[in-house]
Description:
Strand order of the largest sheet: 5-4-13-12-11
Distance between the termini: 124 Å
Number of helices: 25
Oligomer: single chain
Helix content: 25-40%
Shape: elongated
Structural class: alpha+beta
Strand content: 5-15%
Amino acid sequence: MGRADARRAQRRGSRRAVKSGGIRRLFTWRKLLGAALGICLLGMGAFAVLYMVVQVPEGNAQAKLQSNVYKYSDGTLLARTGQVNREIVSLAEVPKGVQRTFVAAENKSFYDDHGVDFKGTARGLVNTVSGKGKQGGSTITQQYVKNYYLDADQTVTRKLKELVISLKVDQKRSKSEILAGYINTSYYGRGAYGIQAAAQAYYNKDAKDLDVAEGAYLAALLQAPSQYDWAVASDNGKALVKERWNYVLDNMVDEHWLDAGERQGMKFKIPQTPKPAEGLSGQKGYIVAAARAAVQKQENVTDAQFDAGGWTITVNIDRKKQQQLEKSVKAKLTDKLDTKGRKLDQDVQAGAVSVDPKTGGVLAMYGGRGLTEHYISNATRRDYQPASTFKPVILAAALDQESQTQDDQQITADTRYDGTSKRPVKGSDVAFAPENEDDRDYGQVTVQTAMNKSINSVFAQMGVDVGMDRVMQTAGELGMDVKGLQAVPAQTLGSMGASPMEMAGAYATLDNHGKKVTPQIVKSAQKQGEPPIELPDAIGGQVIKRQAADSVTSVLTGVVDDGTAHEAVRNAEGLSDQQIAGKTGTSDDNKSAWFTGYTPRLVTSVGLFGEAAYARTDDDGKKAGKGAQVPLKGAGGGGRVNGGGFPADIWASFTAKAMGDPGEFDLDTDMGAAVTPPSPTAPPSPSTSHSEEASPSNEPSSPPASSDPPKESGSPSTPPPSSPSGDPTSGPPTDPSTEPGPSDSAEVPVDPGGDLPNGDNSLTR
Length: 765
C-alpha cells in the first residue's frame, strides 16, 4: 500500500474516533464548569434584580399590635390586656458590658459582618423548602429586621426579603442603631418587649442600672423566653438557662470584652418574682392567666404571638358567683387573720374552684391574695397534698370494681373494717401501718363510719383490697394527674400533689354520675379575622359506673350529716336541710387543709396551704426558706387547722349564696347507699377480722328512722338526706364499734381552729 493509501486509512480512523468520543467531549470539565459559572451569574443577576426591587419598608410591628379582651360569661368586660409593654431606650442608656452580652449570645461577629449570615440563611432556605423547621444562625441585623420590618412567617419569600433588607439596613444604619433596635424590639417573656421593660420585669430596675451578670440572663432569655423564665421554668429549663448564661459570659471572655478573673467571680442572679401587668391585680389576674394559658395550649400559640393581640376570650366565670367567692374568703378567713400581729397568719394561702358538674364550666375561682402579692395561683397549684379528700376515690374504685375484702366480702357502705390505729395492712407486698388522727383506735367500724370520721387505717386496707394499681387508675380516670406515681399503700393518705381545680373536677365527675368532667375556664375564644377556636369537650364519657359514683355521693352525705364537716356546713344559714356531699382533708404535718363538697348543681373545692411568707428557723432548729411548705397549726389564733374549719366555713358561706336552686340528687345506689350507724344498743360485730359486712352486700341499707323517711334512692323527688342518726336534733348516735378502747379518751368533737388533744401530728383527716 502506497503512502496515499496510508493517509486515507488514517483519516478514516480519525473520523471514527471523533464519532465515538463526541458524547464524552460534550461533558468535559470545562463545559461543566462553564455551566456552573453561568448558573452563578444567573443567580447573581436575579439577586441583583431582587436587591433593586425590594425596598426597606416602614417599621410596622407596633402598628399591628392590638389589645386582648376578656369577658365574663355574661359578656361584661373582665379585663383588657395586650398593649405592648415597651419603653424605647437609647443605646447610651445601656451599659457597654450589657450591650456586649447580647452580641456574645447571638452574633459574635456582629461588629465586623455585613448584616447577613449567608451560610445560616442558605441553611434556613433549605430547611424551609424541605419542611425541616426553622432556620438558625441569623445575625442580630437579620433578627432586628424580622422583628421590626417583617413577621415571623417561615417562607422562602420572607427569608429572601430578610436577606436583602438586612444588607440595606446594614449599609444605611450604624451598628449602634441596629443593636439598639434589636434589644428594644425583642421579646423577653413576662409580657416585656424591649430591654427596659425586661429589666423592670426581671430585676425591678432600669436598663441603665443592669450589671453584666443580669444582662447575660436577659440575653440568654431571648432563645426561649417562656422556657427560661426562672419563676415558671422546670428543673431542666433552669439548667438550660444557666448553661446559656455561662455560654454568654465565656464568649465575652473569648472576645476580650470581659476579664477572666471578673468572670470567675460572677454568680447567677435569680430574677425577682414576676409582677402583673396593670389592671390584673386581685382575682382578675389569676382568671386572665388561666384563660390565656388554656388558649395558648389549645392553639399552640407562643407568648409573642398571643401578645400581638386581637383575641376576644369569654370565660365561664359567673361574675356574681365570683364576687361571692371572694366575699366568703374574706369573711371566713382573711378577716380572721392578723397578719401584722401574728406572723404565722402571713403563711396562710387559700385557693378555691367552683365548677358546674353538668357543663364543666369553672364558675368561680380564687387564686390567692392577688397577683401583686402572690404570683402563683393557689387554684391551680399542685404541690400540696389533698390528704383525706382522696378517700372517696378509693371507695369509688372499690365499688366500680366490685372489690372484695381479704375475707371475700364485697365492699359496700356497710362493710366492716378494723379501725385500729397503726394496724398493718394485710395482703400487701409493701409494709404499711398508718396512724389514725390522734392515734385513736376505733375497733370494728362500717365503711360509712370510716368515711365520716376519716379513719386512715380502714382506707389503707381498702386500697390494698382493691389493688393500688386500680386505685391510681381510677384517680386518673376521675381527672387527677397521677402519672409517674407509685401505686403503694401510702398513696391512700392522699400523699400526692393536687390542686383545687383538679379535686373539683374529680368530685364533679362523681356528682355527674361517673361521666368525666374536666373543668374548663374558657367558654369561647376568637382571634380577629379568624373563626372561633375549637375547645375540647369538658364532659366526657362514663369513666366509672353510675351506681359506683352515686353510692360514693350517698356515702359522702354522711360526712356532712354525721362527720367531720357537720358543724361548719349544717350550721350555715340556708344549708341545714340541703342535699350536700363532701369530704374534709388535713394533710401531713397540717401543711394543707381541704373541704371539697357538692350539691346536685355546684361543686366547689377549697384548700388552705401553709407557705412560708419569710425565711425562718423553728424551735426545733429546722430551717424553712421563703415559699417553703410549713404547718398551718396556730393560724387564726387557734390550734390545728382542719378541713372542717376554715375550708368548710368558706365552702358553706359561698355555697349558701351561690347555689341558687340546689336541685336534688338523683341517685342510683344499688351498690350500697349511705347507712345509719348502728344504734347504741346494737352489739358490735362478732368478727375479729378487719372486714365484715353487716348486711347483704348488694342491698342498700334501710333509711334512717325519722318521722318522714326519705323515698327510695334514685327517685327524682328524693328529699334531702337526713342525719344518719335519724334525728338531727339529738346529735350523732354512739356506734359501739367506735367506742374508745380502755386507753382512749372520749371522742373529741371537731373544733375548727381549736386545739385537739395530743398536739399536732402528721396524719390526714
